[in-house]
Amino acid sequence: MATTLYLYDPPAPGPRWFPFAGVRPLCELRAGAWRIRERWEGILEAETAAILADHVAGFHELDEPEVRATATVKGPAVVASSCFAPAGVPVEWEGDTRRLTHDGQTVAWLVPAGQEWAGPDDAGSAVEIEGMLLEGAADLIVALEGFLQGDCADFLHAPHDEVPEGSIVIGEPNEVICLGAAVEPGVVFDVRHGAVVLEEGVEVRSGTRLEGPLYAAARTRILGGLVRVSAFGPRSTVRGEISNSVFLGFANKGHDGFLGHSVLGTWVNLGAGTTTSNLKNTYGEVQLEIAGSRVATGLQFLGTLFGDHAKTAIGTMLPTGTVVGAGANLFGAGPVPKFVPHFAWGLGGETMTEEGFLQVAERVMPRREVKFTEERRASLTATWHRLAKE
Predict the structure, then answer these.
(1) How far apart (Å, rounded) are the C-alpha atoms in residues 72 and 312?
(2) φ, ψ of residue 248 in degrees (nearest 5)
(3) pLDDT of residue 334
């Protein structure tokens, strides 16, 4: 069903969306193998015309549509909530339908030709759709565990390479899905609980055990270790023990150390031996501490939420349910607090300058063959100023 699609972020995402609110559109976060925007585009068979996101208007990264402030949308169009991740089931509706809902909550608005959408409402007839409501960044872990198996299974009937020579497969060989990946001999694929999908240009080194469901986007490098139930965005570097984690893309964990039930924003770099705790000693619910407030998650397992461009020094130990702000650089003596503000410089209360933040980004991006354009500089400059006010 061809339609014009707009993604809508709430004007001021609350503390639950730290460390991504004010940094990137929520629809550009990864829920399972795919970004939220991609999930909407898939079920509607549409391309996004624009992202309406007051909190990051003017954001620019790579391939996202224009990001602009919320304004009136003229029909025919669909305006979809960034706080809902659809399942992969195509949706159809009758001509008089005005909303898509999930558990009775409106998650999209259908705007007929000749009419306008001026903001969220609950008027008009509705069609229920499948998916997951997201209340904050920690729910990306819930979405990963809810969607990843099905996302990987979608590749089973697509043409793919034979099982790489010298691999060890535990389970059905047809669930090892290589789409132009380079896999060294000796890699173990455990697909008893889900498929392993390796996109074009992915490199997997000998000494790696991959347990599905698992998705690695184009040109990801997996350099060794036990890696299970995770989704890696493009150009990620992975090594060590990784479980139930999401990499948005262009992040680096190239050394040993445990990473569990964690979310890594773009351009995150974890120093050698960085380790997350993802379970309290009491086995109780993990609560986040965000700018002096406690936020319940309902989760027993939750590691660290890393904002874009965050960095850790070698040997960094992160408590259960840590939140690290965008651009933060963790080093120095003493324990890491559970809440690290944006652009923290070390653990002593200092803040990275605008110039320092941009210099690091300009040095890092060419390492992944990404140009540091003036448009990218302007976007990151706006991010620094926006977050510095907090």
Answers:
(1) 42
(2) -65, -30
(3) 84
Say how many C-beta atoms besides its own lie within 10 A of residue 120's C-beta: 13
pLDDT for 216 equals 98
- Can you tell me the distance from the alpha carbon of 295 to that of 207, in angstroms, rounded to the nearest whole number? 39
What does the alpha-carbon distance between residue 340 and residue 323 come to, in Å, rounded to a whole number? 6
pLDDT in tens, 237-260: 999 999 999 999 999 999 999 999
For 324-340, what is each residue's pLDDT tens digit? 999 999 999 889 999 99
Q: Going by C-beta distance under 8 Å and a sequence separation of 6 or more, which residues neighbour residue 282? A: none
Q: What is the mean pLDDT of the chain?
A: 96
Residue 105 phi, psi dihedral angles, 5° rounding: -95, 135
Tally Cβ neighbours within 10 Å of residue 224. 18
With b meaning 16 or more CB within 10 Å and e meaning fewer, what string describes 237-258? Answer: bbbbebbbbbbbbbbbbbbebb
Query: What is the distance of C-alpha 291 from the center of its chain?
Result: 22
Residue 58, phi then psi, degrees to nearest 5: 90, 0
| Confidence at 2, pLDDT banded by 50, 70, 90 | low
State pLDDT tens for residues 120-134: 999 999 999 999 999
Instruction: Map tokens 């990801």 to a residue.
Output: 220
Query: What is the rounded (10 degree) CA torsion for 9, 253, 143, 42?
Result: 70
Residue 230 is predicted with a pLDDT of: 98
- d(CA 59, CA 55) in angstroms, rounded, equals 9
3-state helix/strand/coil string of the chain:
CCCCEEEECCCCCCHHHCCCCCCCCHHHCEECCEEHHHHHHHHHCCCEEEEECHHHCCCCCCCCCEEECCCCEECCEEEEECCEEECCCCCCCCCCEEEEEECCEEEEEEECCCCEECCCCCCCEEEECCEEECCCCCHHHHHHHHHHHHHHHCCCCCCCCCCCCCCEEECCHHHEEECCCEECCCCEEECCCCCEEECCCCEECCCEEEECCEEECCCCEECCEEEECCEECCCCEECCEEECCEECCCCEECCCCEEECCEECCCCEECCCCEECCECCCCCCEEEEECCEEEEEEECECCEEECCCCEECCCCEECCCEEECCCCEECCCCCCCCEECCCEECCCCEECCHHHHHHHHHHHHHHHCCCCCHHHHHHHHHHHHHHHCC
